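Hey team,

Filing this mostly as a record. A colleague (T.K.) asked me to run one chain through the structure pipeline before their review meeting, and I want the input and output archived in the tracker in case anyone asks later how it was produced. No errors, nothing strange. Just documentation.

Input sequence:
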Amino acid sequence: MMTSKKPDTGNSPADDLRKETLDKDLTRIGAVEITTQSTAQRLTAIGFGLFFLGLAGAFASSQIGAAPNALFIIVAAVLGGYMALNIGANDVANNVGPAVGSRALTLVGALIIAAVFEAAGALIAGGEVVSTISKGIIDPSLVEDSTTFVWAMMAALLSAALWLNLATYLGAPVSTTHSIVGGVMGAGIASIGFGAVNWATMGKIAASWIISPILGGIIAALFLAFIKINIIYQDDKIAAAKRWVPVLLALMVAAFSSYLMMKGLKKVWRPGFGLISVIGVGIFFASVAVLRPWVARKAEGLENRNQSLRTLFTLPLIFSAALLSFAHGANDVANAVGPLAAIVHAAAEGEIAAKVELPLWVMMIGAAGISLGLFLYGPKLIRMVGEQITSMNPMRAFCVALSAAITVIFASALGLPVSSTHITVGAVFGVGFFREYYTARSARRAQYVKKRRPRPDTGTRAAGAQNAVQSRKLVRRAHFLTIITAWIVTVPAAAALAAVLFFIFTL
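Output structure:
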């Protein structure tokens, strides 16, 4: 029997032992350094967050002066800033995650674009008047006095922020709107009773948990199916791209223009749905005329392969990330500053109003908090949405972004309350599950692959290869279950926490 010998290194056994020991020590030191660096980054982010909350309180104090109940307003400003930080950490990831996962944007580039356009959307189109009770969940006239109302809004704001903080820590993108809705509902029940809740409105919001992701997933899957059938699995991909990519991009331009008119420019302009539809159709045909020569120039000299096609979708994805962030800032900043504005009005005026004017300083805290929260804590959720649920490329990310805009337009036309978070994440899942189905069952794909890459394998080996293709899982089930569970418990969890906080505040 032959025995293997350790190669002669020319060193004594003691020297070899010292080298092995040194290597192990260096490995341990490296692991410790990585852990220390990660801990330092987390502590730095926490430090910046606390510094911002201190600034928010000081800024509020400078704006209100010696107003009645000034302490209430300062504390509310800190809570509003905390909520804004968590919106930036959790919700904004949906706007840029697919673009980052597809490598159309770097993480740093996505953070800069999202922060700038979120703040711009909040400050330019965030609205001068906001509802004091998000989505009309409870009737403020039923609240006995302004002090009770202030405590209820503080409980709602803090509970929503804490829930978002926990969801971000767990890596679950959830709806900030549903979080604040749950907080308001729980605080309303604790302060007034179950009769204060508009249960019909709550029923519509609960229905959106199902409607939003399913609509987003179906629309994204349909667009991906169209791209695969008409472009990817064509013999001449470049010719097919010249024919269809201008149409797809024009559809995106029209959809995002309509989306901004409907959701992002409410403070500047409020056209009716009919006018928006007419303008959208006109933008579509004008965009086709402009984009067809642009795509033809971009496609000139490209190789006939999928990698070449991806370059045609990169620039549109950057614009879509910016526009989604602008519209999100215009709409969802109210989740942070709506209750804060209500508290400011009730504390300063001693009265409760269904709608209040939004002071500029309140909006500035919301806009700054969302942008800072995105920079400090957003990368975790950006990677989750863009990279960890399913693999992204520019064409799949394009389908997700387009689905988000079209689903919001469609749902708004029908009067259905939907969540942009649920739509986008649902679209990501829709793309992944469709790829699983298409890879395993598409005869067109099988014929294309066989023609382009003929294999000598036959019999058992070929059958085994086919079975392997059919069993491929392109969506991580663990993330699917975690996110769905988080969606289901968001409203009741935020409501229960808000009720507990209200009782603590009013002891």
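Quick notes for T.K.: Residues 440 and 468 are 9 Å apart (CA to CA). The chain is about 80% helix and 0% strand.
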